[in-house]
Design goal:
This protein is α/β, with parallel strands linked by helices. The protein has 13 helices and 8 strands. The protein has an 8-stranded mixed beta sheet, sandwiched between helices. The longest helix has 29 residues, at 166-194.
Length: 276
C-alpha cells in the first residue's frame, strides 16, 4: 500500500522503515534533511515539502502524521489541505488530546477528507516489536487502512475502538496507566534497594519476568536497564510528562471518576522536577 509519513523522528522514522520492509511504498517528509536522507537509505522515498509529498502519492491518498500535539498538527493539516482531494485520509498517530479529533474531522468533512485518530504505543522498540494501535474514526476509512495497521502492529495489536476521538482517548488512559505502573515499579525497587539484604536488583527483576503477576514490557525494560547499569548511574531523578497523564486526571475530575494511583503518580512526576 502507498502512504505518506509526516514526521520522521524516533517513532515516525521507524514506522516508515517497518512499513517499507513489509513492501509498502512510503513517502516521508520531515523538516530535517538528515531525517529525509535516512528514510531514503532505509527503503522509503522522501519529499522536500508537503506539497511535493502529496504530489508523489496517487489519489486517493493516505497520509499519516507523527508530529507533536496541538498547533503542529493543525499547521500540518493546514499545509496539506489545499493539495488534498475528496477520498483522501489523514491519520493523526501522535499523542493529541482526544477532544481535538472530532473538531478536526468535522473541519475536513466538507472537503471529503476522512480523519482517523490512531493512538500509537511502542516507542523506539516498535520497529522490531511492532506498535499497539488504538484507532478511532469512520469505519470505512479504518477498514481501508487495515493493511497498514496489520503490518505496523504485532499479532492482535490493533483495534478500531470507536468513533472519532476514541483512539486518542484510549491512548490517553493507556499512558496514564503507564504512569502508575512506572511509579509502582520505582517504589518497589527503591524498597528492595533500601532493604537489609544485599539484593541483586537486576536478578530480582529478571526473576519477576517469569511467571509473576507483575511481569510486563516495562519490567522487561527495567531488568535490561538494571543489568546494564546496576546503580542507574548518570540517570537524573527527573521525570517529565507529555500531557496524557494530566489530561486523564482532568477528565477524571469532570467524570467524577476516582483515579488515586494515577493522580499520585502524576504528582510524583511534578515533584521530581522541583528544585528544592
Amino acid at each position: 500500500m502507498q502512504l505518506g509519513m509526516i514526521g520522521l523522528g524516533r517513532m515516525g522514522g521507524n514506522m516508515l522503515v517497518r512499513l517499507a520492509r513489509r513492501g509498502h511504498d512510503v513517502v516521508g517528509f520531515d523538516p530535517g534533511p538528515a531525517q529525509r536522507e535516512q528514510a531514503e537509505a532505509q527503503g522509503g522515498r522522501s519529499a522536500a515539502d508537503l506539497e511535493r509529498l502529496v504530489a508523489m502519492l496517487q489519489a486517493p491518498r493516505v497520509i499519516w502524521m507523527m508530529v507533536p500535539q496541538g498547533d503542529p498538527v493543525d499547521q500540518t493539516i493546514a499545509g496539506l489541505l489545499p493539495h488534498l482531494q475528496a477520498g483522501d485520509i489523514l491519520v493523526d498517530g501522535g499523542n493529541s488530546r482526544y477532544t481535538q479529533a472530532p473538531v478536526r474531522a468535522a473541519a475536513l468533512e466538507p472537503h471529503g477528507v476522512a480523519f482517523v485518530d490512531a493512538g500509537t504505543s511502542g516507542g523506539i522498540w516498535g520497529l522490531e516489536e511492532g506498535y499497539c494501535l488504538m484507532i478511532g474514526g469512520p469505519r470505512e476509512a479504518v477498514e481501508r487502512l487495515t493493511p497498514v495497521f496489520r503490518d505496523l502492529a504485532p499479532e492482535n495489536g490493533f483495534a478500531h475502538v470507536g468513533a472519532s476521538g476514541a483512539g486518542h482517548f484510549v491512548k490517553m488512559v493507556h499512558n496514564a496507566v503507564e504512569y502508575g505502573m512506572l511509579q509502582a515499579y520505582g517504589e518497589g525497587f527503591e524498597m528492595l534497594h533500601s532493604s537489609p539484604f544485599d539484593l541483586d536488583l537486576a536478578g530480582v527483576a529478571e526473576l519477576w519476568r517469569h511467571g509473576s503477576v507483575v511481569r510486563s514490557w516495562l519490567l522487561d525494560l527495567t531488568a535490561r536497564a538494571l543489568t546494564e547499569n546496576p546503580n542507574l548511574d548518570g540517570i537524573a531523578a527527573i521525570v517529565p510528562d507529555s500531557g496524557e497523564g494530566r489530561w486523564t486526571v482532568v477528565e477524571a475530575v469532570e467524570l467524577g471518576c476516582s483515579l488515586p494511583v494515577i493522580t499520585i503518580a502524576l504528582q510524583e512526576r511534578f515533584r521530581s522536577r522541583e528544585k528544592d
